[in-house]
Each structure stands twice: as C-alpha cells, then as structure tokens.
Amino acid sequence: MKTLFKHLIPVAACAAVAASCSADGNAALGFDKPVEVKADSIAVNEIIQPNSWTVANGYAVLTSRNTDNVFYVYSLPDFSFKYKYGTKGQGPGEFPEYISLVNDESGDTGGFIISNYSNKTHDFYSVDGNTIKLAEQVNIYHLPKRFQNDIIMPSGMILTEMAGTDNDDFLYTRSGEDGRVLDSVRTYAFTEVKYDDNGNMYQQSRVNRPLVAVRGSRAALIYELVDHADFYEISPEGKFGLIKSSGKDVLAEDIEKAKNVRSGGRAQGIVRVFATDRYIYALWVDIEMDRERRKITFNDVQVRIYGWDGERVKSLSLEKPASNIIVSGDDSKLYTYNMEEDFEKVYVYDTGL
Predict the structure, then answer these.
(1) β-bridge partners, 75
(2) Among 154, 217, 275, 316, which is most exposed with the fewest C-beta within 10 angstroms?
C-alpha cells in the first residue's frame, strides 16, 4: 500500500527508484530559488531501520522492519525516546512481521493507522506519553483492481487509489460504511502490466503516482515525476471539486518520458509528502546510485512547501541527505533522517514558517 518512493532506502530499492524518477532537473516553477537551511543533529544511535514514521498527538511514531518491537515513540521537539510498543509474532495481541503506517502523509491527525489484513480492517491507534491503544477499526473494502491504496479521511470517507489495466489509474471516494464508490478522478499515473503466454500477470510497473495527503475535507495530490499537483475539496457526498492545479500542464509526452525512464544511475523525483493544518511538504531528491556497492549519493535535497489552496509557498534546500521527513504541528520544525546512517541521527531544521 506504499508508494514506490515512500521509502527511498534500503539500497535494494535502487532499481525501482531509477525506474520511476525523471531527469527533468530541479527548476520547478515557483520553487526555482530554494532557501538554504542548516541542520541541527540529534543523536539517536538506534539500528532499527524505520520503514515508516509519522506524528501522532505530538509524538513521533516509527515502525521498524528488523526488530522484535513494532512501534518506537519519541517526544517532540527534542526527539527523545519515550517507549517501545508491540511485538511481532503469531500470538494474541502480536503484530505481523511487516507493519507500515497508513495515512502517514497526512501528518498529525491525533493517532495513526495500520492495515490489519487478517481482520480485513484499518486499525486506528491513539498515542500518549505512556502507551499506544487500539481506538477504532474500519472495514477494508476491496475492489476488483490490481492495486489498491486506501486513505482514511477524518469524516470516515475512504479515498482509494487504484490501478487496473494499462493507463487505468484513478482516485476514488468511497463510503466508509459499505465501500461503495461515490466519485472518481483520473490521475496522471500510468500502470503497465505484462502477461505471460497463459495470460498470467508477471510484472506491474507504476510510474508518476500521486502522493496523497488529506486534511479536513481537502486532498492534495503531488506527483512523483512531473512537476504537477492537484488540490481538491471533497463534499460530504464524496464529490471531487478541484480547487487548483499547480505546476505545469501534464502532456502525453510527459507521461511517455516518465514511462521510458528505467534503470539509469541517476534519478530525481518526489519521494515523500507530509501535511500539517497549513501546509503540505514534499521531499524532492536528486540521487546517484551505485548498485554494486549498494550505495546512494545525494546530489540535492529540497523540501517544497505548498499551501492547501495550491499556493507554492517556498522551497528549502537541506544541508543533509534525507530519505524521509516529518514536520511539527506548528510548522516550525522539519525532521529528517537518512537511512544510509542506520538511524544514527535525526536532523532538525527551522522552516521559517
């Protein structure tokens, strides 16, 4: 349920990154004069390889792929360790081996969500300074498509990104009560599906997916490869109302160019978005990859900031490499980590907002 760029590292994902990043350069309209910002570092010294993180009730919550514990909770703004929660296993109350957060792009909505496929539910958890508690469960309603990514809105309505056959990528609104489709918009993502002689699918490649964040009744779609973002107001009936499209018009040639970028050694694109009440932050990277050495080199790292009305606010040029970001609820602090460092440090920037 994660986007291709959702977690840039480990380096095993190098080929996938190169397959989906464009080479258009970093002169995005309205973001062509990034402000250089310096980093403060906070020592963490945990080899936990977080595979997702978010902010919940003012705390940073991380999940890890290579530890027995599931969740790691840190206080903000100092990023000091508070506690671990949950263990992996097959027993009662234990969690599956691989857990990743749902809706983490949407920022601090009071808690966090994971998908529980054994129960066919999205599970909502509350967070405080001492523990994590299961607060609510919402049914997962599958539709007959080859890819499905659910985003839960505060109203309980479901946004579902789905891809079926070639060039068949939509974002749907669906009822949280029974899963029925209410409305849809076609996205600028492209899905290529390959089949063997027996008609069995053996490869699915998706390029230029929108990274989606929601806050209140609004949704922001920021595309990975083409400099384009769409901002929608979603009515109580689930109807999409376009507020603004930001960036360049997406032409067929842009999609073709994105499709044809494959296993190069250099890649550029949006790898992460994170939202607050006021802004959406998009992490853009320019990287080079050495597959033999399993090494990623960051040439440029920027955070592009949008308002919920589609305004391009400003761009920050980060001092340190970054593979993921979160932002404090008051928009004052931006936190990053670089998975090349095995979570030794978290870097903190003043946003100036």
Answers:
(1) 59, 80
(2) 154
Q: Which residues make beta-bridge pairs with 206?
A: 191
**Structural domains in the chain (count):** 1
Whether residue 166 lies inside any domain: the answer is yes
Q: Which of 84, 144, 150 has the alpha carbon at shortest distance from 116?
A: 150
CATH of the domain at 163: 2.120.10.30
In a domain, 5, yes or no: no
In a domain, 4, yes or no: no
Q: How many CB atoms lie within 10 A of CB 98?
A: 9
In one-letter notation, the amino acid at residue 269 is: G
Q: Are 30 and 314 in contact (CB under 8 A)?
A: no
Q: Answer whether residue 178 is part of any domain.
A: yes
CA atoms within 13 A on the CB side of 257: 13
Name the least confident of 51-60, 131-140, 188-197, 297-306: 188-197
Task: List pLDDT tens digits, range 254-289.
Answer: 777 766 654 557 778 899 999 999 999 999 998 887
**Which tokens belong to 66?**
């290579």
Contact (CB, 8 A) for 44 and 345: yes
Q: What is the residue range of 287's domain?
A: 11-350
72-126 confidence digits (pLDDT tens): 999 999 999 999 999 988 888 888 887 778 888 898 988 999 988 878 888 999 9
CA distances from 244 to 215, 238, 247, 312, 318 (A): 16, 18, 10, 11, 28
Alpha helices (runs of H) in 50-118, residue ranges in sequence order: none
Residue 55 near residue 213, CB atoms below 8 Å: no
pTM: 0.87
